[in-house]
TrEMBL record:
Enzyme class, spelled out: hydrolase
InterPro entries: MetalPrtase_cat_dom_sf_prd (IPR023091), YbeY (IPR002036), YbeY_CS (IPR020549)
Cross-referenced PROSITE patterns: UPF0054
Localization in the cell: Cytoplasm
Subcellular location, principal: cytoplasm
Keywords: Cytoplasm, Endonuclease, Hydrolase, Metal-binding, Nuclease, Ribosome biogenesis, rRNA processing, Zinc
Gene: ybeY
Swiss-Prot/TrEMBL GO biological process terms: rRNA processing
Cofactor, free-text remark: Binds 1 zinc ion.
Any matching Pfam family: YbeY
Residues annotated to bind Zn(2+): 112, 116, 122
The name this protein goes by in its record: Endoribonuclease YbeY
Function: Single strand-specific metallo-endoribonuclease involved in late-stage 70S ribosome quality control and in maturation of the 3' terminus of the 16S rRNA.
An example Gene Ontology CC term for this record: cytoplasm
């Protein structure tokens, strides 16, 4: 769903999101077909509102994840993991600042969001190392370089 931002710049955003989400679920040891998630492509103003309402942070961010509650037993069909929201202007700015292709940064944040929906986090150093390792592995299956490589230097 597109709620704001110039997302037409990204060719076939839905297909790339599907591939990135599948890569994330696969590296997490899950079957991609067993899960689904909604992705909202929005702008900084809208994500700032969401960030303030849900996290108490009055600023734009690149990605937000909203996990869905686990369904009661016996649920048939793919499980809805929840929702991911991405902010166009923030993604553009970050990609430019980090000299990354916009599509690669977008795919990275889809992977990041899906891993959050699967229960991964980066609150501690150990959690961050695990999550970043999964992100790098998922992105490599998409032909995307390690987004953390240059940040470590």
């Amino acid at each position: 769903m597109v709620e704001g931002g110039d997302w037409d710049r990204l060719e076939d955003a839905e297909a790339l999101a599907q591939r990135a989400a599948a890569a994330a679920t696969n590296v997490a040891g899950r079957e991609a077909e067993a899960f689904e998630a909604s992705v909202m492509l929005t702008d900084d103003a809208h994500i700032r509102e969401l960030n303030k309402a849900w996290r108490g942070k009055d600023k734009a961010t690149n990605v937000l994840s909203f996990p869905a509650p686990a369904p009661p037993g016996g649920h048939a069909g793919p499980r809805n993991l929840g929702d991911i929201a991405l902010a166009y202007e923030t993604l553009v700015r970050e990609a430019e600042d980090e000299s990354k292709a916009f599509a690669h940064h977008y795919a990275h944040l889809i992977v990041h969001g899906v891993l959050h929906l699967l229960g991964y986090d980066h609150e501690t150093e150990a959690e961050a190392e695990l999550m970043e390792g999964l992100e790098v592995k998922a992105l490599s299956t998409l032909g995307i370089a390690d987004p953390y490589r240059d940040m470590a230097a």
